[in-house]
Specification:
Shape: globular
CATH topology: Undecaprenyl pyrophosphate synthetase
Helix content: 40-55%
Number of helices: 8
Bound molecules: 3-methylbut-3-enyl trihydrogen diphosphate, magnesium ion
Largest sheet: 6 strands, parallel
Order of helices and strands: EHHEHHEHEHHEEH
Number of strands: 6
Amino acid sequence: MSDLHVAIIMDGNGRWAKNRGKKRTEGHKVGSEVVRDITTFASQHKDIAQLTLYAFSTENWKRPKLEVDFLMKLLADYLESEKETYLKNGVRFKAIGDRSRFSKRLQKAITQLEEDTENETSLIQNLALNYGGKDEIVRAVKKLQISGDEVSEESIEQSLDLPTAVDILIRTGGDHRVSNFLLWQSAYAELFFLDTLWPDFKKDDLSRVLNQFQGIERRFGGVEDE
Ligand code: IPE
Ligand code: IPE
Ligand code: MG
């Protein structure tokens, strides 16, 4: 297979920092460096076509203001400074989620990087920002209400921020839940829950998951091939 869609719930930044006697925000900083490394690896991997990363959920606004502010600044700094890396690796950037709640600066950084990388073809990196699977489905259905199009699986799917089914869903950080990520797209995803905290996640961890995935027979509700 050469067109895999890999999605990752990048969890465990806070615990990684706490384990080292550091502030949670330090974990987010190191976590953003891992995003760069894993995206580069995925762009060079012949089997991966899309990499979707959960960076900020619709529920993450509940966190202390200082942490939310830090994350917003980290995101804007990252998107504003990484253009060359995206272009060098042939990575097309797209944001999914409701960006309307972000500052003007962050919204501009998102749109700018989307535009600057729109012709890149080695990998699509979707960054989930103020993203919730439920919110995405509600926004999709509202679009259909406005257009008057018939409600069907196909029309809902095409109205989502991301209309591509997930093949591999990874969560780092030891918890076994999906926390409102890609609810529709993960209907038949293979799930991998790793104890590794996101700042410790390495390309070898992703390679191991890909190898395991190759050995799985996906039936999609059908029966095993004879
Ligand atoms: C994931 O790490 C990053 C975001 C949600 C922004 P956490 O910040 O949730 O780290 P833990 O789960 O508290 O260790
Ligand atoms: C999921 O992690 C969201 C992101 C990784 C961006 P959380 O840390 O927010 O999830 P819960 O609260 O443990 O379910
Ligand atoms: Mg967490």
